[in-house]
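note to self: dont lose this again. the chain is below, predicted strucutre after it. 289 aa total, dont forget to put it in the shared folder this time
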Amino acid sequence: MIENLKEKLLIYGRMIKFSHTLFALPFALSAVVMAFETHPFSLWDLFWILAAMVGARSAAMGFNRIVDAKIDKKNQRTALREIPSGILSKKESFLFVLISSLVFVLSAAMLSGLCFFLSFPVLFFLFFYSYTKRFTRYCHLFLGLAISFAPAGAWVAITGTLSGSVVFLSLGLLTYIAGFDILYACQDIEFDKNEGLFSLPSKIGAGSAMSVSALLHGASFIFLFAMYLSSGMHQVFLLFLAVIGVLLILEHYLVRPDDLTHINMAFFHINSIISVLLFMGVLTQAFFK
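---
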């Protein structure tokens, strides 16, 4: 029985790409470190912040897999995902989304009344994103906005308000996510065209879409620098930011309109390193201050 439960959890984890939590989690933890400088919190607060983030992301990804199941089944790249391949039923997936949503709302309630109140519109928007590819080429920005709630939410959970520094951090995450989602969508240009789906690459071509992605990543770098200036960080953070800038350039060097062979390296490995570097930079400068 325990083995069956373990296997089922692993299947759910694969369905929602749990490992991809690494993209946004360091941004949320960066907000936590920044907030701690003026608003000390308990380990229980940190626990509920992490639980809220895992619950929200799991609910959003599970819902996305349900909504896109028919589309995924037609796409050779995604046909083997858990729902279209029959490994998980829609009923099982709906139950997973319901439980994940309850974890998110409960965790928000444990943090504060404000967080509990905000959890409902946030959850609505996380679900709403799954439909944006059906009507707007700017769906990538909707994804970035949805994920950018992570650092903003962590900050609100601790401080009860917002500040310029965390807004810049959230904008940095928004443009960072949208930028590499555009690159990733270049794999499905022909499929999206045939199915009448909206994505920036399918509407303006891979070359132009990659240029937009580069602009978004340039904006992300600028927002992170603005965060540094607005929060009075120690100069050591600039060393980490410089490496992040180099990695963003490398990402666009590896992925070309006529060569997508390195897209998984850029998407999974480089982006994971960038996220971790950001958190390490924020944490390191906090020790130096």
